[in-house]
Predict the 3D structure of the following.
Amino acid sequence: MTDNEFKAAFEEHKDAVYRFAWRMMNSPAAAEDIAQEVFLSLLRLPGRFDPSRGPLRSFLLGITRNFVLKRWRDENQWEELADEHFVTHPISIERSEIAQIVAEAVRGLPLLQREVLILAEYEELSLEEIARAVESEVGTVKSRLHRARENLRRMLAPLKPRNSERSEVSHGTAK
Amino acid sequence: MEPLNENELNQMLRKWEAPAAPPTLTSGVLEKRESSWWRWLLTGTVRIPVPVALAVAAVVAIWIYHSRPAAPHRVAQPGTVSLADFKPVRQLQPVVVTGGQK
């Protein structure tokens, strides 16, 4: 990888890598460290990227995911990673803004559900790309995504608009 | 409590926005990129599979064994001859030997 190719790749994907790490880690400093590591590892081992297996973006998000997982394991050695039967309760909405509540809910998901949800909803990766990034089967990704959304629907139930507000929400206040 | 429907969930998820990468990320990566090779030479590690490491160690050991300098051959030094104790015979007594009889 030439110097210019590296710079172009960095400029194009730095935001996606940082955003993903930021959403996963809940810490700007940790997200920045991870994003740095991701690009430096691309620089050291450019041969690891095989364009025939998917775009550079999903490759970089896959590396990001590995660094996130490594940190998570360092910090939560005794916690079970695959919490398949995790069921959440509605969260309190009295003290926060909606964005904070959504953040809290997403970050409250088990790691394996959280990563597929973030990659699908926020980074808009296809199921195949997510499967490659998280080193799983497409079917597994699908079911994790389904469980993540089910959990979020329950967790965020207190935010459900009342009948009078529904029309406003359905027209969309989101970007 | 009734859960959100799919549309409502999508609306909610969109409200959580992430910041763009900070400028310090750019400067950090570009700075480390400059020094990454010599830094790697000083502090980097290389992962080698155990069988490969053992094979390399065996090859090196064999090579060292065969390439050691051979022990020099000892060449017998010619003995020194001294005539210091040489005494000439006092009387010469010639003996003639013929046909194996004295």
